[in-house]
Structure formats: structure tokens, C-alpha cells
Automatic annotation (TrEMBL):
Lineage: Bacteria, Pseudomonadati, Pseudomonadota, Gammaproteobacteria, Moraxellales
Superkingdom of the source species: Bacteria
Keywords associated with the record: Oxidoreductase
GO molecular function: oxidoreductase activity
Protein name: NADH-quinone oxidoreductase subunit G
E.C. number(s) listed in UniProt: 1.6.5.11
């Protein structure tokens, strides 16, 4: 997860359901600063110079969740919505990746979906994270469709409860 340069989290509060994954997303947010430091030939293990070079630059992390999450501080954008709305936004992003539009969303939601789609398309290695915590299969279907629309460069990570 740390190697991805753009992340979309659909319907999961990773700090509650998968804390190790949440830490990995935090690390992925630092990739932009590492990339900037690499251009100046600064080794990424030199944390302070990398941070100074990055100037608070973060890789894009978008979160669509049912509650406010503790990852909000690293998020480029976060929306708190119902499971149905999260799934609809997920399908809207998937459609926008293909150049299509989805009816039934207000203009702000369409614009946000387009922004996420543009970010994921521009990424070298985008990651979609979804899971079962909201018990809504359509969220996982939206994640799968979005990953498929992004092609082979995209990754999909699913969060399931421990048994």
C-alpha cells in the first residue's frame, strides 16, 4: 500500500477496521514529498530533509466514509455520507474514469467525483480500498468496477473482519 501514489477509500474507517492498513495509507500520503526529494537526489531515509523539500506536499488520498475518520489529516478530500451515497459516488467516479456521467447526483457530487477520477487516472499507481464494515455489497461492486475501469495499473485492497 505504501507504494501507491493515489488512494481512494470507499466506506471504511481504516483506523478502526484495519489499523495497519491505515498506517500504510499514512505512509502512501508521504510519497509526493519523497518523489520531490528524489529529484534532488536526497535519500528517502533522511526524514527531515525530505519533509523540508516536500513542504507539506502529500499524495492524494480521498475518503468516502460513513463517519469522520482519523485519516482526515492526510486526506485531500473526505466525504461523510450514507452507505448508499458512498456507493453512488463510487459508481460516479468509475463512470467518470470512462468519460461517462451518472444521473441522480447534484453538481457538487458530480464535480467531486470528476476530481477523484482525474486524480486516479493521472496517478501512476492508484489504489482503491473498500470493505465489508458497512455491510453494503454495492460499495464493493463500485470499487471493483472502478478498479477495472482504471486498468492494470490500479490496485484493489479489500478489508474484511477477522474471524
Amino acid at each position: 500500500i505504501e507504494s501507491y501514489d493515489a488512494v481512494l477509500i470507499l466506506g471504511e474507517d481504516l483506523t478502526q477496521t484495519a489499523p495497519r492498513m491505515a498506517l500504510s495509507v499514512r505512509q502512501a500520503a508521504k510519497n509526493k514529498a519523497r518523489e520531490m526529494a528524489a529529484k534532488t537526489r536526497t535519500p528517502d531515509w533522511l526524514a527531515e530533509p525530505v519533509q523540508r523539500i516536500g513542504q507539506e506536499a502529500k499524495s492524494p488520498i480521498y475518503i468516502l466514509a460513513a463517519t469522520q475518520t482519523r485519516l482526515a489529516d492526510v486526506a485531500t478530500g473526505e466525504v461523510v455520507a450514507s452507505p448508499n451515497d458512498i456507493a453512488r459516488l463510487g459508481f460516479a467516479v468509475a463512470a467518470a474514469v470512462k468519460g461517462e456521467t451518472v444521473n441522480g447526483l447534484d453538481e457538487d457530487a458530480k464535480a467531486f467525483a470528476q476530481t477523484i477520477a482525474d486524480t486516479l487516472k493521472a496517478a501512476n499507481k492508484p489504489l482503491i480500498i473498500a470493505g465489508t464494515s458497512l455491510q453494503d455489497a454495492s460499495i464493493m461492486e463500485a470499487a471493483a468496477e472502478l478498479t477495472q475501469n482504471l486498468g492494470s495499473k490500479a490496485g484493489l485492497s479489500l478489508v474484511v473482519p477477522e474471524v
